[in-house]
Amino acid sequence: MPGRPTPRPTAPTARRPRPVRATALATTLAALLVPALSACGGDASAGAGSGSTLKWASSYFPAHWDPVVSGSGAQFRELALVYASLTKTDSKGDAVPDLAESWKYNSAGDQITFRLRSGLTFSDGEPVDATAVKAAVERAKKQKNSALFGDLTSIESVDAHGLDAVVHLNQVDYQIPQLLGQRVLQIASPKAAAAPEKLDQNPVGAGPFTVTQLVPGTKVVLKKNPAYWDAENIHIDRVELTSAPDASTVVSGLRTGVYNFADIEPSQAAAAEKAGLDVFVQPGFNASNISLNINKAPFDDDRVVDAVRHAVDRQEFVDKLTFGRGESTDQPFPKGYTAYDPESENAYPYDPALSRKLLAQAGYRAGALKLTLVVPAEDPQAEIVQSQLAKVGISVTIKIDKNWATPFFAKDLTFSLYATTGRDSALQTLTAHFGPDGPLNLSSPYEPDGFEAAVAEVRRTPLDDPGYPRVLRAATRAGLKSKALVFTYSSPNLFAKSPSLSDLPKNPAHIDWTGVTLSGSR
User: Fold this and answer.
1) pLDDT digits over 143-189, tens only?
2) Is 333:285 a contact under the CB 8 Å cutoff?
3) Could you tell me which of 272, 243, 223, 192 has the C-alpha nearest to residue 81?
4) Could you tell me if 199 and 180 are in contact, meaning their C-beta atoms sit under 8 angstroms apart?
């Protein structure tokens, strides 16, 4: 599922409130598994190489290490240390080979065969083959606490023939190579996954590293996996991944060498730069929105929906929440990305006078319309919404519900906030936001007119078709007619690192350690 629903502390760490990526569904579902506070795999230093150690402080330390439970929110980046996938994403955002060396569709476009690399094994010695792919897909679709079942609706079944995984689809869908990457199908050893509750705290994959110690919610230590298919391009010998403490202490930890890599708050960026650290934005698809339920009053009146749209000053979110390092947005995609639709830009400009006029037409005098904005924790984003709507005569009460995810995903709320990290498949991003069953569509089963047909056209269009960008933008345009979401701003994927750590590949939304070196590494 998507990235972070409102303030940062949804996972096991508590930090200064910050817009959270949409991990809430995964976190809620994952709560069905209670992690045992025990280590796995022996001593923390066991198997550590004599070379470099990456010391990574993460504010979204995984609550669960079973990829089916953890879902496709921001924590997939950490799980990608352990698990590989059929495909991965390059700097252009395109699907490229990972465990699968190639793939091919049939002529009808409703079947795709992934050819796996030969001779690969999981860290428990089990073979990486088509049977493992079949097991991973079936588990993601059927496991009771899966956070991924909604991402795999096009997949009917998988046949395993040695190294060939034949994926049968229930519709023509050329998005599958984009979909089955590190976000949605991180593949675990079928033997280990037979006991998901054990896999959850003792991960077994075929990725670049293997776990030597795991303290749930706190720390994990990993060593380089010599059996990884691209091990020769992994130059880090050991990883110490730690749940980040308070935001204000991360920069001092980086400065003193306690860490050499961390995601940081925008408020800490200037201090990190002053300390001589490398501060950078990793490309991504983060987008925050105000979620409306048009099946409930007062949003069943289009004039009230439009009044909210015109009451939003997006730049205020950027200035106050990202210290100018983010961007205002009225779409779920950044400018310049293939799916971004220039024709839809600024369709509902900030216009408080028009907002007040629309409310009057709907029969609401100033102060008469009262709304309750439900969020999972304290969030400065909610306070900005409250302030902006007050300026047009809408009174907003902020309600904190720690069990927020349950009513949100049940579509029981009327007014809330959400933010996502996007998807590698642009179409999946669109259907998650605007589709009738979309997890981010608070107004389900509503979808905007023309969206279903536009989505079908995208699925039918091969990714390398010259007309694909036009077709994709048309689907974005159709989705943005939705009355259920008002996009506000994009918070950056902001990181700081020691100068001893080389630059990371600029793969959108991903953290890829291929080719990355630390001073002193072999």
Assistant:
1) 998 888 888 989 999 999 999 999 999 999 999 999 999 989 999 99
2) yes
3) 223
4) no
